[in-house]
Amino acid sequence: MDTKARKGRKKTYERIASIIDNHQAMPQRVLIKNLNPIIKGWANYYSTVVSKKVYSQLDHLLYLKLATWAKRRHPHKSVEWMTKKYWRTIDGNHWVFSTPQSDESPMRIYQHAEKPISRHVKVKGVASPYNGDLIYWSSRMGTHPEMPKTLTTPSETTERKMYPLRTLFPSRRLVRG
User: Fold this and answer.
1) What is the 3-state secondary structure (H, E, C) of the chain?
2) Residue 24, by phi and psi: left (phi above 0), alpha (psi -120 to 50) or beta?
3) How far apart are CA 171 and CA 50, in angstroms?
């Protein structure tokens, strides 16, 4: 991870920590509402340059900070009581900081590691959107100014996705001359 991402991670953690520290008396719902945009924004912004290891480290630091928040709110309660009150199992994911699922609108904190890592794929050396290779650019970008939207939207399998393009353009060479 480069220096910019490292600094961004530290700055984001400090921001998350300050929000948790400043919301000691607020209900869990308010805390989650204030943390989720920061977590989602950072995870989206750095999803092309960080690894799952970094996301997991941030989630662990977040867990420790939230555990401290819960302990400060209930200093005379046991760890088991706080765990049952603030953490739940949702969709097989244990230790999710969330409001009770029986609430009218349950809320949960987003985890960094939920964001899939998307790596940048380099463009072929000779490829250009203007050389007429509509199949390459439509499959790469999902859109092309000269292709109808219905042919470029993702479908269940690659074969089903490419079939309409192959029927429209039997040969890959679209520009004659």
Assistant:
1) CCHHHHHHHHHHHHHHHHHHHHCCCCCHHHHHHHHHHHHHHHHHHCCCCCCHHHHHHHHHHHHHHHHHHHHHHCCCCCHHHHHHHHEEEECCEEEEEECCCCCCCCCECCCHHHCCCCCCCCCCCCCCCCCCCHHHHHHHHCCCCCCCHHHHCCCCCHHHHHHHHHHHCCCCCCCCC
2) alpha
3) 39
Residue labelled with tokens 């300050």 = 18
- The full set of domain ranges for the chain reads 3-114, 121-177
Contact 15, 63 (CB under 8 A): no
String of b and e for 1-14 (b: at least 16 CB within 10 Å)?
eeeebeebbeebbe
Instruction: Please tell me the distance from the alpha carbon of residue 119 to that of residue 85, in angstroms, as a whole number.
Output: 38
pLDDT (tens digit per residue) in 140-172: 666 556 666 666 555 555 555 555 555 655 555
Identity of residue 106: P
Taking only the tens place, the pLDDT of each residue in 12-59 is 999 999 999 999 999 999 999 999 999 999 888 888 777 788 888 999
